[in-house]
Write a structure and sequence with these properties.
Elements: H1 7-20, H2 36-39, E1 40-44, E2 49-52, E3 57-62, E4 68-72, E5 76-86, E6 95-102, E7 110-116, E8 125-131, E9 140-143, E10 153-159, E11 163-168, E12 171-177, E13 191-198, E14 218-231, H3 257-270, E15 271-274, H4 287-291
Antiparallel strand pairs: 1-4, 2-3, 3-14, 4-13, 5-10, 5-14, 6-7, 6-13, 7-8, 8-9, 9-15, 10-11, 11-12
Length: about 300
């Protein structure tokens, strides 16, 4: 006859499982959609931005003359930033649709989503990168598990003093931890930038596939425009609200067990390049790679 475990033992086991699964971690709050003009403004080629639905939706246009872009009105030192984007459909080779954060100085920090177009029928490539002190070279590339041209999907960055997490539709596709021995962006406020531009010298198959201008104009659509961050002057070295915002709490210092399993699934099934495993460029694995569970 099987002996039943005591309530105390069951409680202990459940507690250990709770801790092992990342008990103090949590998923980011749901982004709040707002009109474009609340948080953003155009930066160049204003006539290539079109507004719809009372300014809640916009499109960016790229033709043989110019691309276009927009940026946040404020600068932010940590926060949660999200954008809903529908990529350029059809033959988008040579084009780059970008959503990124960047500080404005020579030794700048940067957090990048870059969507690299491709020939009709071939998948988009999502490239992420992190710059610290003006140095990047931390590229990772994945195929998405859906067609990003068919509908809007959410792309988000959670950035605090402990980690940077890239999300696609709430799935973490990359984490970059603040670890000893590796530089981390923590003291330079960043603006958020979005753009559609021609990069056929490198974007598709290393520049082998050129932009087919007979397919122009190329159109990408944006909505959502969510910003929940610590707004600071570009000269600020720290966030005045540090420790007070939801994304600054203990629950967001790490991913939980479910999130790490999702990240591992992305690594296993969709990753096509990871600087962490590139021994030609990095004979010694960068210190953050094991901490970030990128290998």
């Amino acid at each position: 006859m099987m002996k039943m475990a005591s309530p105390q033992l069951l409680s202990l086991c459940l507690g250990l499982l709770f801790l092992a699964s990342g008990a103090f971690a949590a998923a980011p709050r749901r982004p709040v959609s707002v009109p474009f003009s609340r948080n953003y403004k155009p930066t160049w080629a204003f006539d290539h931005i079109k507004y719809y639905n009372g300014g809640n939706d916009i499109t960016l246009m790229l033709d043989k003359y110019t691309g276009t872009g927009f940026q946040s009105k404020g600068s932010y030192l940590f926060g949660h930033f999200s954008m809903d984007i529908k990529m350029v459909p059809g033959d988008s080779a040579g084009t780059v649709t970008a959503f990124y954060l960047s500080s404005n100085n020579n030794e700048h920090d940067e957090i990048d989503f870059e969507f690299l177009g491709n020939r009709t029928g071939q998948p988009y490539i999502l490239q992420t990168n992190v710059f610290t002190g003006g140095t990047g070279n931390r590229e990772q590339r994945i195929f998405l598990w859906f067609d990003p041209t068919k509908d809007f999907h959410s792309y988000s960055v959670l950035w605090n003093l402990y980690q940077i997490v890239f999300f696609v539709d709430s799935v973490p596709i990359r984490v970059f931890k603040n670890v000893k021995g590796s530089k981390f962006p923590f003291n330079q406020p960043m603006k958020i930038y979005n753009s559609l531009w021609n990069a056929d010298d490198w974007a598709t198959r290393g520049g082998l596939e050129k932009t087919d201008w007979s397919k122009a104009p190329f159109i990408a659509a944006y909505k959502g425009f969510h910003i929940d961050g610590c707004e600071e002057s570009v000269t600020a070295k720290y966030c005045r609200t540090q420790g007070q915002k939801w994304w600054d709490q203990k629950a967001f210092q790490d991913l939980d067990g479910i999130q790490y399993r999702k990240l591992a699934d992305v690594r296993r099934r969709y990753t096509i390049y990871n600087y962490c495993t590139d021994r030609v460029r990095f004979p010694t694995m960068p210190i953050e790679c094991k901490i970030d569970r990128d290998v």
